[in-house]
Write a structure and sequence with these properties.
Elements: E1 8-14, E2 19-23, E3 27-32, E4 46-52, E5 55-60, H1 62-65, E6 78-83, E7 93-98, E8 103-107, E9 112-115, E10 126-132, E11 138-140, H2 142-152
Parallel strand pairs: 5-7
Antiparallel strand pairs: 1-2, 1-8, 3-6, 4-5, 6-7, 9-10, 10-11
């Protein structure tokens, strides 16, 4: 295999205290924050829905899904629009709050190493943590997050 084939374009998504690392192909767009309309009776990590390109986009707080405090919205807050891959969401997409613009990075097996440090509940949508040079981002389980959203939302 060529060296180029073993590299993956990814995004480092800044949260309040962590970063996520996701393949670039999972992200449809990063949009300006607009306050979601809350759904009555929804979990606190489910922030509601906002209009994205003429469709209702369910928006979540990843920190909230980890059982942590939902961060305050600032001028840097954005919504990362993820492609829903399991078919459980009618919209085909869902959004997650980010505390700034994601950073494009190229990763390969020489850059990423599995880190055994945990720090999230067993039910959290996290696959693992990795060491990437001087960063320790989380690899989210986007399918599990989508499933959680579909199971707990009337908009699914």
């Amino acid at each position: 295999m060529s060296e180029e084939a073993e590299e993956l374009y990814s995004l480092l998504v800044p949260l309040s205290e962590e970063r996520l690392i996701v393949p670039r192909t999972c992200v449809a767009e990063v949009v300006r924050y607009s306050k979601p309309d809350q759904e009555a009776g929804a979990h606190s990590w489910m922030l509601g829905t906002t209009n994205w390109n003429g469709r209702l986009l369910p928006v979540v707080s990843f920190e909230g899904a980890l059982g942590k405090e939902i961060p305050a919205v600032t001028g840097r807050t954005r919504i990362v629009v993820f492609v829903a891959t399991t078919g459980q969401l009618k919209t085909g997409y869902f959004g997650a709050l980010t505390q700034g613009f994601p950073q494009l990075v190229r990763v390969n097996r020489d850059v990423l190493k599995l880190d055994s440090t945990e720090g999230w509940p067993e039910t959290a949508p996290v696959l693992c943590r990795v060491k990437m040079i001087n960063e320790y981002p989380l690899i989210p389980d986007l399918e599990k997050l989508e499933e959680m959203l579909a199971r707990n939302s009337l908009q699914a």
